User: Fold this.
Amino acid sequence: MDIKAIIEQPEGRRLEFKVKLPTNAELVKSIIAFANDPGGEFYLGIQDKPRDIIGLDEELLIALEEKISNIINDQCVPVILPEIIFHNIEGKYIIRTKIHKGSQPPYHLKSKGVEKGTFIRVGSSNRLASKKIIDELERQKRNISFDSELVFSKERKDVAIHSFKEQFKEKTGEELSNQVLAKLDLVKTEQGRELPTNALILLSDDNLHQQLFPYAKVECARFKGAVPGNFIDQKTITGNVTLQAEQAYQFVLRHISQGTTDYQGVYRNDRWEYPIVAIREVIRNAVIHRDYALSGKDIKIAIFDDKMEITSPGKLMPSVDYSLTDSGQSDIRNKILAPVFKKLGIIEQWGNGLRLFANELRKYPEIKLSWKEPGIAFRVTFTNTLYQQQHELQQELQQELQQESLYGRVLRLIQVQTSSTQELSTVLEQKSISGSLYTTIKKLREDGLIEWTIPDKPKSSNQQYRISPKGALFLKLLDELAK
Assistant:
């Protein structure tokens, strides 16, 4: 990315801006956090809020470079090798310190040690890493995953996996024998004992599942309105994690409608109101890539009138960038579970999910995708940008219906049967077509609630009025509101 384009980006997981060199402690916390995560860039000479290139004194550049390098070298362990680059932007000098993702985490302050000196990046801030985060960084260094670790409290033969066996046979045609379990690394032999991995417990019906992973579940909720509060429906999905994504997806389908409308009267029955392929992919990713080592955190799916939020425990994997959904990215947190999901057909092809996701979103220009990392979690939000317009229109028209009874009566009549102006006048028991009826029909047409049956011949003697898709949707929403 061009340096000017980078500077226009907001501060976040990979970017930090400072006008002048911060304290040694502040600087090394950022450097360590970048090295422990996906890497990042620290810019000196740039004001963050409001964003402005202030610049640095050219004569101080060499001295600042040496100071930054010395601070990093003296205070960070293991060794971090920064790239320090000078840039001249329209006559103003800045310093860019680039930190690559480290291969020997956890990186920490030499003076504080691992437990009190390890920092991670959360949004645009640096936070002291918890014991579980440090453990995960240690696993990254050893290139192992949490789901591959052994469970010593019970041998494989004593673990209940009945539903997983049935599912495996149904989806693959194979028996889930001990040999297959070992091939999938779901079982490992340790000192003559066949022990299950965390992955097998997550796939099991065993009571250890609940004991070890009480939060390995999906909480689904449909809220009334646009903020958390009153529930319309709620569901907790537990058990075998390979079944959770489909159950959560079915919950979503029950609470979104098929067929939508825009404000030009275009009514499409061939699609859902949200991009369900993209939503299914996000739910799958939430289950497959969540951090099962984090206790006290579950997956949450929240459906509101105007948006849908899917939140998964654990930060986005370092090499994945949601802003580059076309690039076929693939990074696996759960190295044992992911191949099982693939074998069962839940994952179709490595790196293909985000591409499917991007293709589906292009069909929904009214849906805004956004994502963020609230704490140690990753949240994807699908927002219906037309909702606010629709909500305002609904309130406006409801007020008109309440204030002008003729407006509402005419719309209801046309909903029941296509009618001409004369026929409407007759049903309304008018001796002749009144001026108020002409005015009402004109207003209904301007609001897009009714339309001509012969649009090419406005003055045709056979001209009638029918309710528009927008009008039908409006009355449906109005009826639901009245319940």
User: Anything to note?
Assistant: The chain has 18 helices and 22 strands.
